[in-house]
From TrEMBL:
Recorded GO CC terms: mitochondrion
Annotated GO biological process: propionate metabolic process, methylcitrate cycle
Name used for this protein in its record: ATP-binding cassette transporter CGR1
Origin species: Maudiozyma exigua (Yeast)
Domain MmgE/PrpD C-terminal: start-end pairs: 280-461
Lineage start: Eukaryota, Fungi, Dikarya, Ascomycota, Saccharomycotina
InterPro entries xrefs: 2Me_IsoCit_deHydtase_PrpD, MmgE/PrpD_sf, MmgE/PrpD_sf_1, MmgE/PrpD_sf_2, MmgE_PrpD, MmgE_PrpD_C, MmgE_PrpD_N
Length: 481
């Protein structure tokens, strides 16, 4: 009698079948993916304004010739190093897209692996991947990460959401580099058996810069695993999720199985409903709170008053914001501040803006008014906001500010249910998203340079989707550093 290996876990089979067989037919998903691609590249370019990003993405060993191009630099790398570099750039400012559910995350993080792998394959293997191929891969990566996040909370068991970045990137990249369905399952099984990232670097007292390069690390790991399967018979771990005691569910998920009741099949739902960060580089649960604070700043000016006239502020918010960004006490660094709702509201109330620079030490430590105003704020959980947050037909991210002044005046509560990057505000948001991309390109390559003009022209050309991805990335090479 022979012992047969178990069949692969159903989820791994379903993901592999989706990657290799499902055809993306939704025009809305593809159009949204195009905007997402441009926005994500723009966010990556903007990150290069900060020295630490250069220090992190520069490879520890000499980079290769004719490798994948890293946008906004003159670096060339293999796709494993390249996916780390681009993934880190994309996530650094917390300004790329967002998905909120039982788990949170940023599906465009997967572009770190998608773009660099397609680009490398074109240059080295002679493939002909185009922007259209990138968009279709994006839709699938978004879908895998987002659907698994809908009902499965990794943060509740102390794991970071980049586990889903690694899984989605590994799935999509496996097809890009020529793996078959069985090999994709093999790669996915190794992605799941890894020791997964703990969430501790996102929370006090351990908040730090790792949260800004964790996605790059995840995409890099995913690409490495896919290539390892391609070059060697490393074998599958078929019941990596379900085997008793040793499997992921028992060992890392407290015995719970993943559920997909809301959306039982992978299609294109996530890209169609993705959230864009348009106005503010801020953790997404605070986007509407910051928008409300900007409104309050204008109201105070109209009354001839300012932040010094504020006695107290009540922030009504969702349960997720209470758990992630309701912070009291000292904030030690950039990473602490851009995940503190009180800080993100204080800055616009004082200065009438919120930019990435406003999280820097020079601003935080030289303006005592920020902490004075933070101490006047209290967050309260609103049950209806929380219910609407989880409602798949609404996906609201509501916040409300109630401000009382020192003279006893209570201003009308300012409620913002949907941020400008929400699907319900697409007509309003997309023109601003394109302006955001244009701004980031001009900041990196110059306002009036031929390089800037060409990038912007190509990005809006009617034949954009037909352009080979390597030719497009060539346009982003920094001629002079």
């Amino acid at each position: 009698m022979t012992n047969k290996r178990p069949q692969p876990d159903k989820l791994l089979q379903d993901i592999s079948t989706y990657i290799h067989s499902y055809k993306i037919t939704s025009p809305l998903a593809i159009t949204t993916a195009k905007f997402c691609l441009l926005d994500t590249l723009g966010c990556g370019l903007a990150s290069l304004n900060y020295k630490q990003v250069h220090d992190i993405i520069n490879p520890p060993f000499p980079y290769i010739q004719n490798g994948t191009r890293i946008p906004g630099t003159n670096l060339q790398m293999d796709p494993i190093q390249g996916s780390f570099a681009l993934g880190t750039m994309i996530r650094w400012l917390d300004f790329n897209d967002c998905w909120l559910a039982a788990e949170w995350g940023h599906p465009s993080d997967n572009l770190g692996g998608i773009i660099t792998t397609m680009d490398y394959c074109n240059r080295i293997n002679g493939t002909s991947y185009t922007i259209k191929d990138v968009l279709h891969a994006m839709v699938k990566a978004h879908e895998i990460q987002g659907i698994l996040a809908l009902e499965n909370s990794f943060n509740e068991v102390g794991l970071d959401h980049v586990i889903l970045v690694k899984l989605a990137t590994c799935a999509v990249v496996s097809k890009i580099i020529g793996l078959n369905e069985t090999q994709t399952i093999e790669a996915l099984s190794h992605a799941m058996v890894d020791g997964q990232s703990l969430r501790t670097y996102r929370h006090a007292p351990n908040t730090g810069s790792r949260k800004s390069w964790a996605a790059g690390d995840a995409t890099s790991r995913a690409v490495r695993l896919a290539y390892l399967v391609k070059q060697a018979n490393i074998g599958s771990i078929p019941s990596v999720l379900t085997v008793p005691k040793w499997g992921f569910y028992d060992a890392s998920f407290r015995g719970k199985y993943f559920t997909m009741k809301q959306r039982p099949n992978f299609q294109s739902y996530v890209m169609e409903n993705i959230l864009f960060k348009i106005s503010f580089p801020a953790e997404f649960h605070a986007q509407t709170a910051v928008e409300a604070s900007m409104i309050a700043h204008k109201q105070l000016k109209q009354l001839g008053k300012n932040h010094n006239d504020i006695k107290s502020i009540r922030i009504r918010t969702q349960d997720a914001a209470m758990r992630i960004i309701d912070k009291k006490g000292p904030l030690y660094n950039y990473a602490d501040r851009d995940h503190c709702i009180q800080y993100m509201c204080a800055i616009p109330l004082i200065f009438g803006q919120l930019t990435a620079d406003d999280y820097m030490d020079d601003i935080a430590t030289k303006n005592p008014d920020i902490d004075l105003l933070r101490n006047k704020m209290v967050c309260v959980k609103d049950e209806q906001f929380t219910k609407d947050y989880y409602d798949p037909n609404k996906r609201s991210i509501a916040n409300a500010l109630l401000i009382e002044l020192n003279d006893g005046t209570i201003l009308d509560e300012i409620i913002v249910e949907y941020p400008i990057g929400h699907k319900f505000r697409r007509d309003e948001g997309i023109p601003l998203l394109l302006k955001k991309f244009e701004r980031h390109v001009k900041q990196r390559f110059g306002s009036d340079t031929l390089q800037t003009q060409r990038i912007l022209q190509l990005s809006t050309d009617e034949n954009f989707e037909k352009m080979p991805i390597d030719k497009f990335l060539d346009e982003f090479v920094m001629k002079q550093e």
